Amino acid sequence: MKMFIVIQGISDVFQEDAVDVPDAVVNVAGFGTGASRSRRKLIAKVEQSEKKLDLAKRRMIGGSLTVTLIESGTVLSSLFSPRSRRSAFLNADETAATTTINCSSTTPFASSGSVFIGGETITYATKTGGGTPTLNTATRGAFGSEAQPHFGDATQGAGVFMTPPNWMGRRVKLVGYFANDDGTTTTALAQVLGTFRLEEAPAYLGDGKWELRCSDLSDEFAKRKLGSGLRDIEAEYLIDSGAFLYEVGADIDQFVIGGITTHLLATHGDKATALPIVAVSGTEVEIDIDISVNLITPYALVGDGTIRHIAVLRDAAPGYLLVYALVSRLGNSANGSYDILPGNARDAFGYDGWRFGAGILAAEVDTASIIALGDLGIDWSFVIDDEIDLEAFLFDFCLATNTVWFVTAEGQLSVKRLNEYAAASMLTVDDDVIIGEPQVDYDEASIFPRVTLKCNYDPVDREFKATINLIDNELADRYPNNHDRLEIESRSLIVVDAASRPLVSPLRLVRPGLPFAAVEGMLRSVQQANGLGRCIVSLRTHLDALVLDLGDLVTLTVDVPDLEGAASITARICRVLSLGPDYDQGFVEMTLEVIDALFVIAPAAVIASIAGSTLTLAIGGVELATGRSTTPGRQFAANWQAVVRDVSGGTSEGVGILSSITDTTVTVGSLPGGFTIAAGDVLTIDTQSVNDGITDANADGYGVDDFTYQMPNDENDVDTSIGEFETRWR
After folding, report:
1. Is residue 543 helix, strand or coil?
2. One domain for residues 215 and 257
3. Tens of pLDDT, residues 588-600
4. Is 289 left (phi over 0), alpha (psi -120 to 50) or beta?
5. Rounded Cα distance, 502 and 496, in Å
6. Which of 207, 210, 240, 337 has the highest CB neighbour number within 10 Å of its CB?
7. Contact 454, 470 (CB under 8 A)
8. 707 vs 363 pLDDT, higher one
9. What one-character DSSP code corresponds to residue 443?
10. Residue 160 lies in a domain
11. Residue 477 is part of which domain span?
12. How far apart are CA 401 and CA 320, in angstroms?
C-alpha cells in the first residue's frame, strides 16, 4: 500500500511512490482536480495515532497524524515560508465571488498562478498592471480552500501573499492506495484514510527533513463556539425606541417561529423582558457606550439592567436543530439551506460580527446521517445565551438521542446510534484477518452507581434550577468500593412532574419537559444500571480493517472466552471502539466491544375476549404498563407488528399489523394458524423500531443495554400518535 497527502489550499500532491499518482486517484481526496496539481515525491514516513470512542464523553478522541517530508532542492523551504512579507494589498473590497481582484500592484506576481489572501487560495489566468492593477479570471476558493469576502482600501487592505501566510487549521487528506506490479493504480484501489488539521506551521527538523503535525478534526469541532461574538450590555438607561415591552412569562411561545426562538432578553432586578432580534445596519445608538444596532435592538429600560441575546432551539426532530447549530453563520442560507440561525457579518475592516451557530462549512457536516435520526417523540430544546463550546452542545444532544459523535475519514462531523440495528456485514473479524492472539478484558470502570444531573436551565440568571441525584442501591451493593459520581449538566433537559409542571418553579422560559420516569431511564442507561461490565476485545488485524470507522458494527468470531461462560466468541456483534493503524508494519490495532443481547421487554395486555379480528383487552391486567390500568389499548400504536402468546400451549404466533385501536380494543391483521386465541392469552408486539409507528424488520435484538425498554405512551394520545415516554418493565 502506498500513500499520498493533499493540503487544503496547496496545489502540490505529496506522495511516497516514485510513480505519479493518476489524476483520477488524486480526485478521490478532493481539494481540486489532479490535473492541476504538481506531484512531489517527498514523503518519508507517515504515523497515525489511535482514535477511539469515549462513551462517557459521547465523542471521538485521538487520531493525530505526523508526516515526515524530505527536501527536494528548495521546494519545501520555498513553500513553507509563512513569515514572507505580503507582496501587495487589496485596494478595494472583494466579495467571495469576485473574479477580478484589485491589488495595489501586480508587479511582484507571475503572469498567471496562485496568490493567498487570508485563508483562501486564489488562482488567476492573467494580470493587468498600470493604473488599475488586477488579477483576472480568478478562481476563488482554489484547492479546497474556502472563498471568503475580503476588505480593501486605497491605502491599506488585506494582504496578498505569494506563499501561504498561515498553516494552522488547514485540512490534510491522507489517501492510501494499492499499487499493481507496474506501479499503476485505480480509484477502486484507493481510499481516504483520514482527514486532519495542521496544528502548526511545518517544522524543520534539520538534515533536509520537514514535519507536518496534525490533529484530528474532532478536537477542532469540539472547541468551536456557539453564540460567538454575543455581548452582554449593562446600562442604567437605554434610549427609548418607542416600543413598550412586557415581562417574559407563559406567552414566550409567541416567539417560537419555525421551531426556533430568537430574541433579545433584558433583565431588570428579578424581571425579564424580551423582544425579537431586528437586524439593522448603519447607525449607532448613543448611551453610556456606543452600541451598534447590528448587535442589539434599542428599547426603553429604566434602572440598572442587562441586555443580551438569547436563542431557544426547539424541535421534536433534534437532528435538524443540530445541523442548524453546526452550519449557521448569518442565517441567510449562504452556508447551505440549513444556515438559518441569525448572525451578523462584520461590515468593514476591523469591525466584528456575531452568530449563534458554529459556522462549520456545510461540506464538513454529515447532514444526511444526523437528520436521519428522525423524530424522537419528544420536544427537545436547547438554550444559547452566551458563547459556549460546541462540545457541550454535542454532549447534551448525544445524551438525549443515545448517540455518539465522531468525524468520518472524509472529515465530516457525524453521529451514530449506540443501539444501532444496522446489519454487521461490513467485515467479519476472524482468523483470516486477525494477526496473533486477541486479548479479552472486562471493563467495570464505566459503571456509575451514583449519577448527578443538573438540569432545568434558567437563562435569566444562568443557573440550573433542578438537581437530580440518582443512586442505584443494587449497584452500590454490588460495587461497595465504587464511590465515583458521574456529574452531568444539561441545558436541554427540562424535568417535569406527572402534571407536566417543572420540578422547580417558576421556570423563566416555558420550555417542553420530560417526565421524571423518562429522565431516570436515560440516566440508568448512562450508569450501566444492569451492572454488567463491558466485554472488550483487543486485537491486531491486517489492513482490511481500514475499511472500518468508529462505531461500525462487525461480526466477531474468535477462540477466546466471551466472559459469559462460553469457551469462544462465536458470531457475536461488536462495535468498533478504537482504530490505530501502523502503516510501516502493515497492521491495525483495533478494540471491539461485544454488544449484549437484549431481553425482549415490550408492551403487553391480557386478552379478555375475541370477536372476529377484534381483541378486547382486560382492564387491570397484570401485564399493563404503568398508567394503563383502564386504557390497555393505548399502550399500542397502529402499524405495529403484533404477536399473541398462547398461554396454554406455550407458543407465540404473529397476528399482523395492529389497527383500529381504542381504549380497550385492538384489531389485528390476521388470526393465528397454529392455535385459537382464547381469553387469558397475551397480546404483545414483535419488534419495534426506534422510529415510532414504523415496523422494524430487524429482529437481532442487539442494543446498548439489556435492562429496560422505553415504551412511548401518553394518556391523551390517539392510536397513531406517540408522546411522552414511560418505562415498561417485564
Report:
1. helix
2. no
3. 999 999 887 654 4
4. beta
5. 4
6. 210
7. no
8. 363
9. E
10. no
11. 450-526
12. 13
Q: Are 242 and 209 contained in the same domain?
A: no
Beta strands in 231-379 (DSSP E): 233-238, 256-257, 260-268, 271-276, 284-286, 290-292, 301-315, 343-344, 354-355
Shared-domain flag, residues 426 and 540 = yes
Of 253-257, 326-330, 471-475, 531-535, the poorest mean pLDDT is in 253-257
* Residue 349 identity (one-letter amino acid): F
The answer to whether residues 237 and 378 belong to one domain is yes
More confident residue, 183 or 310: 183
The answer to the question of residue 188 being in a domain is: yes
Q: Over 50: is that where the pLDDT of 106 sits?
A: yes
Q: Is the distance from CB of 517 to CB of 503 less than 8 angstroms?
A: no
Write the single-letter amino acid at 111.
S
Cis before residue 438, ω within 30 degrees of 0?
Answer: no
Beta carbons within 8 Å of 87's beta carbon, 6+ residues apart: 105, 108, 109, 115, 160, 161, 162
pLDDT reported for residue 649 = 78
Q: Are 6 and 23 in contact (CB under 8 A)?
A: no
Contact present, 17 and 1 (Cβ < 8 Å): no
Q: For residues 559 and 568, is the Cβ–Cβ distance under 8 A?
A: yes
User: What is the reported pLDDT for 721?
Assistant: 37
Quick one: which of 403, 399, 318, 692 has its CA closest to 575? Answer: 403
In angstroms, the CA 312 to CA 318 distance is 13
Q: CA 381, CA 511: separation in Å to the nearest integer?
A: 7
Q: How confident is the model at residue 166 (pLDDT cuts 50, 70, 90)?
A: very high
The closest of 455, 467, 331 to 381, measured between CA atoms, is 455
Q: Is residue 152 part of a domain?
A: no
Which of 669, 664, 667, 655 is closest to 633 using CA atoms?
A: 664
Same domain, 260 and 390: yes
- Phi and psi torsions of 65, nearest 5°: -135, 135
Q: Quick one: pLDDT band at residue 444, thresholds 50, 70, 90?
A: confident
Residue type, 260: I
Q: Which one of 223, 250, 267 terminates a domain?
A: 223
For the chain, give me the number of helices (H) and strands (E)? Answer: 8, 51
Domain count, the chain: 5
Final residue in a domain of this structure, among 526, 553, 584: 526
> Residue 124 falls within a domain, yes or no?
no
282: left (phi over 0), alpha (psi -120 to 50) or beta: left
Find out whether 325 and 393 touch, Cβ atoms under 8 Å. Answer: yes
pLDDT digits (tens, 9 = 90+) for 446-504: 888 899 999 988 776 778 988 989 888 878 888 888 888 889 999 888 887 766 666 66
Q: Are 693 and 640 in contact (CB under 8 A)?
A: yes
